[in-house]
Amino acid sequence: MGYRVEVRDAALNRIGVIDTWIKLDLVVRYCQTGSWQVLVEAGTPQADLLQKGGGVAIYQDGVKDPVLTGQIEAFQHYWTNDQHTSLGSLYFGGKCDNKLAYNRLAFPDPAKDATQQWQADDTRKVKGPAGQLIWSELNQALGPGALPSRQIPGVVIGSNVPSGPTLSDNLRWDVIGTKLESWIDTKTTGYRFLYDPNAKAINFHPFTPRDLSQDIRFSTELGNLREFTWALTAPTVTRVIVACQGAGKSRYLYQQTDTASEAEWGLQIEQFLDRRDLPIKADPTTGQPIKADLSVSDTDFQTALQAVKDAANEALTNGAKNGNFQIYPIDTDHVKFGRDYFVGDIVTVAVDGTEYVDIVREVSITVEQGGQTETVAPSIGEQGSGNPLNLYKTVFEMREKLRRLEARM
């Protein structure tokens, strides 16, 4: 597909189009900050369009909305004696407009200036539907509901959209974009910021991820997979020992074991956690947990007991067996990124007899020679992340089906 790069100035006016670029690199991410970079010849009128404070809107041919819009944040002059000769070339780049959410902090009291936050509570409690919390936080930090000094001209937040599950959270100087990552999900709540050249505005777009899993499929049989890899990794921890206060017979010790992983992999791997900060010691006659001293309340004691279990669970989770799955789709006449699916859509991958349905979290695009060579590389779900919620079950099923197939051959 062809691409065009439209340029805006600091006042969000569309001032021209760059159509003779040398190379274009894009990374589009679901509810996170993407990036862009374009290489153009130095000393040309088109290169002169790109100035500090300005930005770009990058479109695919035949697709209404931009793939990505963002502000210019970096300039680099590039010259070599064999390829980028004469005046050389210029790299221009930056982040996508989702960065607006990462440029703001969640004040304890959004109605007060930063220097007046000493009058506010240490934390601010919020509760409501995910979509409402996202809208409210952005509105108070950079939209019309923000203090005049924090409002960003040309950014349109729109109306409240109370969608998604009900959430409760505490805010204290959090980076808003990072906090929003914990509020969005893959079924009900997503968002992106996009520049609209006709309205001369950057609009906040909340959306519900589209379920295209029945229509958009990737597999070797369909010819739209260039490569896939999967791997299973044994756990690095199967037994966690948590030690609290006390010494000798009075030191409380708690152990938690991942028996299923030990049986599956035939491994026993111990890890020791020192949690002297928890007010628990052992009864020297029974080894059972008791309060470290008389000043510990019943509530604090129960909280500490739960903290011991949580610490053990976290260590086992961090060291859990891992499944890693990566695919490398390619555009075909039947399925193309941008035209048929986009970041935030739910799609299906079929590999080794196993179907995996998840969201398109990221797409990397490289276009060279003004559009003659194009590479589109989507990342689907948690593939390649090593995230322990991980793809272990999916990848394990792939391995078992492959083994059964090999046994029949």
Secondary structure: elements and pairs:
Elements: E1 3-8, E2 14-18, E3 23-29, E4 35-41, H1 45-49, E5 55-60, E6 68-71, E7 74-78, E8 89-95, H2 99-102, E9 105-106, E10 124-129, H3 130-141, E11 155-156, E12 166-171, E13 174-175, H4 176-183, E14 190-196, E15 201-207, E16 217-219, E17 225-233, E18 239-243, E19 253-257, H5 259-265, E20 270-274, E21 280-282, E22 289-291, H6 298-318, E23 322-329, E24 346-351, E25 354-368, E26 373-380, H7 392-408
Parallel strand pairs: 11-15, 16-24, 18-20
Antiparallel strand pairs: 1-2, 1-5, 3-4, 3-25, 4-8, 5-6, 7-8, 9-13, 10-12, 14-15, 17-23, 18-19, 21-22, 24-25, 25-26
Overall body shape: globular
Structure classification: alpha+beta
Question: How many strands?
Answer: 26
Quaternary organisation of the protein chains: single chain
Distance between the termini: 41 Å
Extract low-pLDDT stretches. 384-390
Report on the structure:
Residues 5-382 form the Gp28/Gp37-like domain. This is Gp28/Gp37-like domain-containing protein. The protein has 409 residues and is an alpha+beta fold. The chain has four domains: 3-96, Roll (Phage tail proteins - horseshoe like beta roll fold), CATH 2.30.300.10; 101-207, no CATH class; 217-233 and 322-408, no CATH class; 239-318, no CATH class. The protein is built from seven helices and 26 strands. The chain has helices spanning 45-49, 99-102, 130-141, 176-183, 259-265, 298-318, 392-408, and strands spanning 3-8, 14-18, 23-29, 35-41, 55-60, 68-71, 74-78, 89-95, 105-106, 124-129, 155-156, 166-171, 174-175, 190-196, 201-207, 217-219, 225-233, 239-243, 253-257, 270-274, 280-282, 289-291, 322-329, 346-351, 354-368, 373-380.
